[in-house]
């Protein structure tokens, strides 16, 4: 199967040559203006299918509020703000995303979720959030983001840095499938195309290994099969405590 997988991946890479060339000459950045529109529509469907999972995950957020204080949360790669509805009332939210074109949809989500207090929107990648102070937030949220960052360990180091002691990193990420499955086969074969469709998204990452070695004091993580298209069906869900 390995030889067949490499051969099929090569064919897809050849078919993606125009996209490779667009990226090489700098034309692919045009898609970054269009991608928020696509993600806005996709996120609505994703939230419907993963509603109960998200509700269960974010139910634990409140336990990380400092006694007598207000929960301060930073979301890495907030996109269109589809997680806002799951955050506890009066939570203070700092939004970050490397794509400034999400801000239009972010404002719409803010208006629809006025139970939250929004501090600011920072245009920054997960690997470099230098404008956020050390140990300044109670929780960091990261959903469907570690699949597309350039450096997972560095992103986790940044999350760890800005979390206060006892704070938590919440995650929901699609990951690579079991090597014995056809999902694994097609994840690798379709990856060249998926990279462009998903604005850098990779379906073949073993993200759980990075979380296990990130130095958190406690890691609560589940491997689940999400009710989604087979390419992004395998997920990990949970949180890690600093």
**What fraction of residues sit in β-strands?**
15-25%
Q: Count of helices? A: 8
What does the radius of gyration come to? 18 Å
**Helix-strand category:** alpha/beta
Q: Quick one: how many beta strands? A: 7
Model description:
It contains 8 helices and 7 strands; from the N terminus they run H-H-H-H-E-E-H-E-E-H-E-H-H-E-E. The chain has 242 residues and is of the alpha/beta class. The chain has a 7-stranded mixed beta sheet. Strand 2, helix 5 (103-112) and strand 3 form a beta-alpha-beta unit. It is globular, with a radius of gyration of 18 Å. The termini are far apart. The model has no long low-confidence stretch (mean pLDDT 93).
Brief summary of the model shown:
The chain has 242 residues and is α/β, with parallel strands linked by helices. It is built from 8 helices and 7 strands.
